[in-house]
Design a protein that fits this description.
The complex is a heterodimer. By secondary structure, chain A is α/β, with parallel strands linked by helices. Chain A is built from 9 helices and 14 strands. Chain B folds into 3 domains: 72 residues, Dna Ligase, domain 1, CATH 3.30.1490.20; 124 residues, D-amino Acid Aminotransferase, Chain A, domain 1 (2-Layer Sandwich), CATH 3.30.470; 151 residues, 3-Layer(aba) Sandwich (Rossmann fold). The chains are: A alpha/beta, B alpha+beta.
Chain lengths: 298, 390
């Protein structure tokens, strides 16, 4: 198994006709993902290298029955695209779009909870989900990962690639790699994905990659202590970030003592989660726990 | 984007929240004219984005013109924790019967707006939250419904507002929620929210943070913020569309993705180096953006060596390489003397590395891993050799 995306994925892409949208959609298809359609209002009836484009999610749902949506539209259109896909009954919505207003994210999250509890949102501002050898939905460079038993969940896209790549170089593969995004109101949290990995037969160990800001890592630490039987290894970015400065992700704001990298690492270690100090060391710990050759952290 | 007190108050007034009449001025003469308009006694308040203004002498009461001149002269140009006072707010002094606290913010853990209210205002609210948490009322609001007047009345009563101002406090809370909602704020705070002797409820201070991602909906707010105290490089970065934060070291850092860049800062620090900046070129960095980013990093004279750490997903390695090559073509003598360590992985990484090899840039050092890249750049910044350039 794996989580969220696999051979049964039927992907439909909002923003498929844009430059980035088409590039990554075609990448996903080349990887083997079953891409069944795209949605761009006003461009219904066209196709992107054979992938049919629809005017609306309702139409796409009727014609090609997608179970997964990928959102690639500009920030100001993203909230409506997510809710339209959910209203059309799509069960998984993966939102790549970066820069969505926080109030829109808040409205989307709470609307999904109230009106569309059957839809799970991953992102926004995330790299997507990859189940190596099965399906890739998003922008994760799949060539760096192979099939295996490590589940990876991360707030940061590029950090996910970094850690996954080091695990792969040590000879291990991944069940699924899930980027939950670094925005203030993510659709899915560490806790949501830990729950999936805990229930997934293929996953033997979870690597959790967090960063400064918010309290998602602390909540994950509590959840791991109570509900996760599989080993979890963590990495936290932002030890040298100055207090009070926003470092890129809207989520990554340090203010006061809570939300710092040190506090997060402590919270995880207090619950028995080993925390690597560099991506390389984190991968080495994961490999060691899995019983592989211990890799030097240098 | 944090607003100055007077800018926040202007937003408050726009949504029907009561504030004292006042004027923002940048000279002693303008302060005198403003005071004549609002009427003595007046309060002269330094406009800076940092707490502790009062303790630093940046807030003074003036009962007449000579006193006002003295205070305005002292406060304008004053340095408060590294922030220069360019503007003072002249406001008619309020008579105060009680000082409350009110705020609306985005509670990320609950994924809901949070309204907070306390009758213990005018002091450090973190201290109230810690020592007497029962005196700080916290109420989540359903963002799909908004803050109803009933809930606002309940919050005011629960918080112990004087019975005769419960309605006034509720009005203020509803107005503050509207500020938070309509202006796309992530925080809207009033401390103190005062009750005057004639039982009027009024905002005596403001702390507002706006969501930069939503500014396109608010063209009227785009010129706000403390641009005079903004680091010129950070301002330029904003114009170039990259995330840049100046730090105090000597190793320039560029990466793609906030998490990877933060991690790069950590790894460089662990290798014994001191990062000069955080620069996230973002997803989908194209050649033009990379060229601008290189200029930005080198505009900081402290930079002795630069580390490029790219792991491409949406960013394509060949475009990063093209940007770097283009930037190098335009570098001045100083720029050409700065060594660059480049680590490139991910989407189109081989094409990118090939472009760099073929360009044979004189001062670019390739690195295979993040740790190797960090060690190399630390060595180069301290003047030690780190192997041959590419």
């Amino acid at each position: 198994m794996s989580v969220l995306v696999d051979e049964s994925t039927r992907l439909c892409v909002a923003g498929i006709t844009g430059r980035e949208g088409s590039f990554h959609t075609l990448n996903n298809r080349r990887y083997g993902t079953n891409v069944v359609g795209g949605v761009t209002p006003g461009k219904g009836g066209q196709d992107v290298e054979g992938i049919p484009v629809f005017d609306s999610w309702e139409q796409a749902a009727a014609e090609v029955q997608p179970n997964t949506a990928m959102i690639f539209v500009p920030p100001r259109f993203a909230a409506d695209a997510i809710l339209e896909a959910a209203a059309a009954g799509v069960a998984l919505v993966v939102t790549i779009t970066e820069g969505i207003p926080a109030h829109d994210e808040l409205r989307v999250y709470n609307t999904l909870v109230r009106d569309f509890p059957g839809t799970r949102l991953i992102g926004p501002n995330c790299p997507g989900v990859l189940s190596p050898g099965k399906a890739n939905v998003g922008i994760i460079p799949a060539a760096f990962f192979k099939r295996g038993n490590v589940g990876v969940v991360s707030r940061s896209g590029t950090l996910t690639y970094q850690i996954g790549n080091e695990i792969a170089q040590a000879g291990f593969g991944c069940s699924s790699i899930v980027g939950i995004g670094g925005d203030p109101v993510p659709g899915s949290s560490f806790v949501d994905i830990l729950e999936l990995f805990e229930a997934d037969d293929e996953t033997e160990l979870v690597v959790l990659s967090g960063e400064i800001g918010g309290s998602a890592e602390e909540e994950a630490a509590d959840y791991i202590a109570q509900h996760v039987s599989k080993p979890v290894v963590a990495y936290i970015a932002g030890f040298t970030a100055p207090a009070g400065k926003q470092m890129g992700h809207a989520g990554a704001i340090v203010s006061g003592s809570s939300g710092t990298a040190a506090a997060k690492a402590q919270a995880l270690e207090a619950k028995g989660v080993r925390v690597g100090r560099t991506p390389t060391e984190t991968a080495a710990i994961a490999v060691e726990v899995l019983g592989g050759a211990s890799v030097s952290a240098a | 984007m944090d607003l100055l007190e007077y800018q926040g108050k202007q937003l408050f007034a726009r949504h029907g929240l009561r504030v004292s009449s006042g004027k923002a001025v940048d000279s002693v003469e303008a302060a005198v004219a403003a005071a004549a308009e609002v009427g003595y006694p007046v309060v002269v308040k330094a406009q800076v984005l940092i707490g502790g203004r009062g303790k630093a002498g940046g807030v003074k009461l003036a009962s007449g013109e000579s006193e006002l001149r003295e205070h305005a002269r002292n406060i304008l140009g004053m340095d408060i924790k590294g922030h220069t006072v360019h503007t003072v707010w002249i406001e008619h002094a309020s008579d105060i019967a009680a000082e409350y606290y009110a705020s609306v913010l985005l509670d990320r853990a609950a994924k809901k707006p949070l309204v907070m209210f306390s009758v213990e205002g005018g002091v450090d609210i973190e201290e109230v939250a810690e020592k007497t948490p029962e005196k700080l009322i916290r109420a989540h609001v359903d963002p799909l419904e908004g803050l109803t007047r009933e809930q606002a009345l309940q919050i005011a009563r629960d918080g112990g507002a004087d019975a005769d101002v419960v309605e006034g406090v509720a009005d203020a809370l509803v107005a503050l929620y509207e500020v938070w909602l309509q202006e796309d704020a992530t925080l809207a705070e009033i401390n103190p929210l005062i009750v005057t002797p004639d039982r009027e409820v009024r905002a005596l201070d403001s702390k507002v943070s706006l969501d930069g991602n939503a500014l396109y909906r608010h063209p009227e707010n785009q010129s706000l913020s403390d641009s005079e105290n903004e680091d010129p490089l950070e301002r330029r970065a904003k114009e170039e569309g990259v995330q840049y934060v100046k730090l105090d070291g000597d190793i320039g850092i560029l990466g793609n993705g906030a998490g990877l860049v933060m991690s790069t800062l950590d790894v460089v620090a662990q290798a014994g180096g001191r990062p000069a900046n955080f620069l996230d070129a973002g997803g989908g960095s194209n050649a033009e953006k990379i060229r601008g980013a290189v200029e930005l990093i080198l505009a900081n004279d402290a930079v002795k060596a630069v580390l490029f750490n790219i792991f491409g997903g949406i960013t394509r390695g060949d475009e990063v390489a093209e940007g770097l090559i283009a930037a190098f073509g335009e570098l001045d003598e100083h720029g050409k003397s700065i060594p660059f360590v480049v680590r490139l992985d991910g989407t189109n990484d081989e094409q990118g590395r090939k472009l760099l090899r073929e360009a044979a840039l004189p001062n670019v050092y390739p690195a295979a891993t993040m740790n190797e890249a960090a060690e190399k750049v630390v060595a180069l910044a301290s003047g030690r050799a780190a192997g041959a350039p590419a």
